[in-house]
Amino acid sequence: MTDTLTVDGLTVHYATREGALQALRDVALDVPAGQIVGIVGESGCGKSTLINALLQLMPENARIAAGSVRLEGEELVGAAQRRLRDMRGRDISVVFQDPMTSLNPVLTIGRQMRDIQYREPCDRAEKLRRAAAMLGRVGLPDPQARLDAYPHELSGGQRQRVAIAMAVLMRPKLLIADEPTTALDATLEVQIIELLKELQREIGCAILFISHHLGVIAELCDRVVVMYAGEAVEEGPVADVFLHPSHPYTAKLIECDPGRMKTRAKLLPAIPGDLPDLTAPPEGCIFRDRCDKATDLCRTKPNPVAVNGTHWARCHYAAEYGA
Amino acid sequence: MTAPILTLRDVVVEFPALRGLKAMMAPRNARHVQALSGISLDVARGETLAIVGESGSGKTTLARAINGLLPLAGGEIWFNDMALHQRPDWHAIRRQMAMMFQDPVGSLSPRKTVRELVLEPFAIHGQDVGNPSQTAQRLLEDAGLNADFLNRYPHQLSGGQARRVGVARALALNPAMVLADEPTAGLDVSVQGEILNLLNGIKAEHGLTTIIITHNLNILRHIADRIAVMYLGRIVEIGPVTQIMEQPRHPYTAALMSANPEPDPTTRRARIILSGETPALTARPSGCEFHPRCPVARADCGSQIPELTKAGPRAVSCHYPISENT
Amino acid sequence: MMRQFRHSLLGRLLADPMAVFALTIIIGLVVVAIFADAISPHDHTLMNLADRFAPPSTTYWLGTDNLGRDTFSRLAQGSRIALYVALVAVSISGMIGLILGMIAGFGPRWLDNLLLFIFDTLRAYPTIILALALAALLPRGLSTVIIVVVITSFSEYGRVVRTQTLSLKNAEFILAERAMGASPARMVFHHILPNVLGPFFILAAMNLPVVITIEAGMSFLGIGVPPGTPSWGATLKDGFDYIRNTPWIIIAGGLPLILVTLGFTFLGEALRDQLDPKLRKSR
Ligand SMILES: Nc1ncnc2c1ncn2[C@@H]1O[C@H](COP(=O)(O)OP(=O)(O)OP(=O)(O)O)[C@@H](O)[C@H]1O
Ligand SMILES: Nc1ncnc2c1ncn2[C@@H]1O[C@H](COP(=O)(O)OP(=O)(O)OP(=O)(O)O)[C@@H](O)[C@H]1O
Ligand code: SF4
Ligand code: SF4
Ligand SMILES: [Mg+2]
Ligand SMILES: [Mg+2]
After folding, report:
1. What ligand 4 atom has the least distance to the C-alpha of B304?
2. Given an 8 Å threshold on Cβ–Cβ distance, is B265 in contact with A97?
3. Cβ contacts (< 8 Å) between B218 and chain A: which residues?
4. In this structure, is residue B255 part of a structural domain?
5. What is the dihedral of CA B109, A152, B65, A179, to 10 degrees?
6. Is residue B325 part of a domain?
7. Has residue B35 been placed in a domain?
8. Is the distance from CB of B261 to CB of A218 less than 8 angstroms?
9. For residue A242, is it within any domain?
10. In this model, does residue B136 exceed pLDDT 80?
11. Are C275 and C8 in contact (CB under 8 A)?
C-alpha cells in the first residue's frame, strides 16, 4: 500500500522568552492511502503543532528544526510557497480545532464556501448548490438558508460542521481533522464519523484524525498514534493499542477515561504531575517523572520497541508490559 | 429542597431569521425564529445541572440569556431573588455569575497575556488582587497550569491550555454560580478529570451552583446531579442523572444516550439510529416536534403537542414515554 | 535579550530590506528637518541676485532659483514644513477617525448609519475642490492646509477602524468581557483598541506622504503656504515657471517628494506584513 502522508523525524521548536520550546521531537508517522489514523494525547502535547507543520502553516515563532513531511512522496518542508498554496485546500484540507480559524467573521457561509471552490470550472449557482448539498450532508438543518448566515449566527456545533463541510468539499487526498466533533452531540458525532468513513470509501482519501474522545477514535480509526510531550510514544492498530496498551502513559490515559467508569466517581482519576518543561526536556524517557514503572534504565532514552506486528511503544519495558 | 438560586419561567429568545429587504417584505411572525421557546427550570443552590442535547438546540443561547448577553423575547428569570428580566444591575450580577465559553481560544482577548486575562475580573470589579503575580499563579495552578504560562498570549496556548485559562478566570472571584459551556471539550481525559475534580471540590467547599453544558456524556454521571435534555429550543426531559442515563423516557434521550461511542473496541452497543434531519427553526414540525424522527411515534404525535409533565423528580414531554420496565 | 529583540516589531522590521530602506529615508528626513539650520550651506532667505539660476555646483549643491536663493537650503527648510504638516494633520485626522470609527462600529445601529453617511459624503468629495473652496474662505497658511487634509482624510481612518471594530464586536472574547461585567468603555479601550491599532498605523504611515503631497500641491497652486515660505510645493512652482531654461530646480524640488513617498509607502507595507498576523502566518 502506498503512503499518502509520510512524516519522518519531525522536530519543531517555538521561540519563547524562556528559550526554544521543543514542541515536537523526532516524530515519525505514516498515513497510508485509504486509512484513518487517529492521534490521542495529553492536551499541549503537540497535536495541533504537528498539523500546522504538515501544512507548513506555522506561527511566526515556530521553526522546523529537522525532519521531513512528504505527501505522496513530494517533500513539503521547504517547498515553494506557490506549490504549497496550490496543495492546500485541494490535496490537503484541514478542519481546525477552533472552527473560527477557517471562517471569516464578516463573510457569509455561502460566500466562503463559494470562494474555496475558486479552482472549479463551474458557475456560481453550481458552486452554491454543491455547498448547500455538503452542508446538508453534515446535518445542518435548512442548508439553503444557512448560506446567508454569518458565522456568529451559528451554534458552536454548526460552525464546526461548516468547517467540516468546507474541508471535504474539495475531495482532498489527505484530510486532517483536529478535534472536529468536540462541539457535536453524540448522535451527530456518529453521523460525522459515518460521513468521514463514507467519504473515505468514495474518494479513497487518507484521514488524520485528532480527538480526546477515545470512543470516537476506537470507532473511526484503523490505527492510533499516542503522543506525549512532543513525542509519539506508541502506535498500532486501534484494537491492539486500546486492549493491550504497551506504554505506561497509554495505559494511564485509558484508565482515566471517565467513559469507562459506569458509577459515579467521587474523585476522577488523573495522571499526577505535569508535562515536563519542554524548553529543557529531561534526559532519558520523557515520561519518567510521572511513570510508576520507572527504573534506572529509564535514564537512557528508550527506542521504539515492537510489541506485536506493527504495534510498537517507546518504552524499555514495552514488550513485557503490553503482551 | 432549599429555595432555588435560579428560576426560569417560559423563557423565549428570538433571533432575526431574515436579513435586509427579505425581512421587510416578510410577514411579522416570519421575521424571527425562536431559539428558545418556553424554557422553565429551577436550579437549587449548590446543585449541578447538566444540559445536554442536539447541537443547535439552544444550549448556548440558554446560558447567554441567563447571563443577560441576549435579550429575552418573553418569560422571566430570577437569580437570587433578583428579576433578571427587568433591567437589573448586570455589573453586580455578573460578579456572582461567571461564564465559561464554548470557544476556548476565541474567548480570550488576543493581545493580553495570560496574567492579564486571569486578573481581568478583579480589574472589572475593582477588587483588591493582593499580590497580582501570586494571585494569578494560584488561580492558574488551581486550573492545572503552572506559572510558566503567565506571560503567554492566547495564540501561544494549546486548545486545552486556553480552556484552563477560561476556567481559572471564571472561578477568580468565587462566584455563586458558574455557567460552563463545554468546560471539558478539547481536554484530554486526564485533564478532564482534574477540571471536574476542581469544580466538584469548589462545590463541596463553597456550595457552588453549576450549570454545565456538554456533549460529553461520559462525564455526566461524575459531575451532574440532574440532567436537562434539550431538543429544538425546548426541554424534553429532565431528572436525576442516573435515572435519565439509565432509564431514559423520552425517545430522543434514549437515542442520544445510545449513540455515545464506547472506548472499548470489543463492546458495541445497540444504537438507536435517528432517521431524517434536525428540523430548521424556521420550519418546526407540528404536534410533537420530534415526531418526524421519532422511532416510536404514533398517529396523534403529529397533531398533539405534548407537555413537559412531572412524575416524581423527573419530567418528560412525550405522549408515549418509554416505560421503566422495557 | 537578543532573542526578545528579534521578536519585537523593530527587530522584525530590521530583518526586512524594504523596511530598512524605508526607515533610512525617514530617519534621514527627520535628521534634515531637525538640523535644517546647521546643514544648510546658505541662509535660505538670502537672495543673491548675482547668482540667479545658478546650476548645481560645489557652492550651490542643487543650484539656485530665480531670486538666487540656494535650492538645497530651501528644501532642507521645506522638510520641516512637510513633516510638521504631515504629522499634525495625520495625528488630528487619525484621532478623529479612530474615535468616530470605534463609535460607529461599537455603538448602536443608527449612529453607525449616521457616521457612515458622513464618512461616505466626505470621501465622495474630491480633495482638490474642497481645497479650492476652503482656500477661498480661509486665509492662506499652514493651518488651512491642515484643515483641508483633516476634513478630507479622517473619514478614511474612520471607515477602516469601523470595519475592524465591527468584526471584533461579535467576537467571542468581547462577549466574554461582557459576561464578566466589563463596561463598554473598558471593552472599547482595553480590548478593541489594541486590535485596531495595527491597521490604523499602517494606514497612517501610508497617508503621511499623501498629506505632504497635498501640501505641496496646494502651495504649487498658490493656495497653500504664503509666498516666500520655503515649502517643497513652492520650490516646485518656482521650478515649473522656469522649466525651459533651468530644469534642475523642478527636478531638485521633486526629488524629496518622491523619496518621502517611497519611504513611507514602503514602511506602511512592511508594517502590514509584520502586523497582520494572518498574512504573517502564511509566509
Ligand atoms: N505560538 C506558540 N508559541 C509558543 N508556544 C506554543 C505556541 N503554540 C503552541 N505552543 C506550545 O506548544 C505545545 C504544543 O501545543 P499544541 O497546540 O500543539 O498542543 P495540542 O496537542 O494541540 O493540545 P490540545 O489538545 O490542548 O489542543 C504547548 O505546550 C503549547 O503551549
Ligand atoms: N446571532 C444569531 N442569529 C441567528 N441565529 C442564531 C444566532 N445565534 C444562534 N442562532 C441559532 O440559534 C440556534 C441555537 O443556537 P445555540 O448556539 O444556542 O445552540 P447550542 O445548543 O449551543 O448548539 P451547540 O451544541 O452546537 O453549541 C441555532 O440554530 C443557531 O443557528
Ligand atoms: S521507559 Fe521507563 S519511564 Fe519510560 S515509560 Fe517505560 S517504564 Fe516508564
Ligand atoms: S410524543 Fe410521540 S413523537 Fe414525540 S417523542 Fe413521544 S412518542 Fe415520539
Ligand atoms: Mg490542539
Ligand atoms: Mg453551544
Report:
1. 1
2. no
3. 215, 257-259
4. yes
5. -70
6. no
7. yes
8. yes
9. yes
10. yes
11. no
Contact A307/A246 with Cβ under 8 angstroms? yes
Task: Please name the residues between 123 and 182 in chain A that touch chain B, using a CB distance below 8 Å.
Answer: 136, 139, 141-142, 145, 148, 153-158, 161, 179, 182
β-strand B226-231 against A223-228: which pairing, if any? Answer: unpaired
Residues of chain A with pLDDT under 70: 1, 321-323
Domain CATH number, residue A299: 3.40.50.300
Residue A274, min C-alpha distance to chain C (Å): 27
State the pLDDT at residue B195. Answer: 87
Which phi and psi angles does B312 have, rounded to 5°? 65, -140
Interface contact flag, A263 B221, Cβ < 8 Å: yes
Q: DSSP readout, A10-66?
A: EEEEEEETTEEEEEEEEEEEEEETT-EEEEEE-TTSSHHHHHHHHHT---TTEEEEE
Express each pLDDT in B269-315 by its tens digit: 678 888 777 888 888 999 999 999 999 999 999 999 999 999 889 99
Q: How confident is the model at residue B24 (pLDDT cuts 50, 70, 90)?
A: low
Question: Is A30 inside a domain boundary?
Answer: yes
On chain B, the residues whose CB falls within 8 A of the CB of C173 are 106-110
User: All 3 cell numbers of residue A184?
Assistant: 457535536
Predicted pLDDT at C280 = 43
Among C2, C3, C280, pick the best mutation site for testing chain A contact (most A Cβ within 10 A): C3
What ligand has the least distance to the C-alpha of B19? 2
Task: Look at chain B and report how many structural domains it folds into.
Answer: 1
Min mean pLDDT across A177-181, B161-165, C41-45 is at C41-45
Residues 109-128 of B with CB under 8 A from A: none
ipTM associated with this complex: 0.85
**Other C-beta atoms within 10 Å of B75: how many?**
18
Q: Which domains does chain C have, with CATH numbers?
A: 84-282 (1.10.3720.10)
Mean residue pLDDT of chain C comes to 84
Q: Is C53 left (phi over 0), alpha (psi -120 to 50) or beta?
A: left
From C4, C166, C281, residue closest to A57, measured CB to CB: C281
Is the pLDDT reported for residue C282 higher than 60? no
Q: Is the pTM here over 0.90, yes or no?
A: no
Tell me if B134 is assigned to some domain: yes
Q: B63 is in which domain, residue-wise?
A: 6-262+269-316
Q: Give CA–CA dist A29/A12, Å, rounded.
A: 15
Ligand 6 centroid, distance to A152 Cα (angstroms): 11
Mean pLDDT on B113-140: 93
Shortest-distance Cα residue to atom 4 of ligand 3:
A285
List residues, by chain if needed, whose CB lies under 5 Å from ion ligand 5. Answer: A 48, 97; B 158-159
The answer to whether position A118 is within a domain reads no
How many domains is chain A partitioned into structurally?
Answer: 1
Nearest to A105 by CA among B54, C173, B113, C193: C173
Residue with cell 442548508: A143
Instruction: Give the pLDDT of residue C36.
Output: 82
Highest mean pLDDT pick, B260-264, B321-325, C96-100: C96-100
**What nine digits make up the cell of A163?**
468547517
Domain extent, residue A249, equals 3-88+222-322
Q: What is the CATH number of the domain that holds B203?
A: 3.40.50.300
A55 to chain C, minimum CA–CA distance in Å? 10
Answer whether B273's CB lies under 8 Å from B267's CB. no
Let me know how long chain C is. 283
Residue A99 included in any domain? no
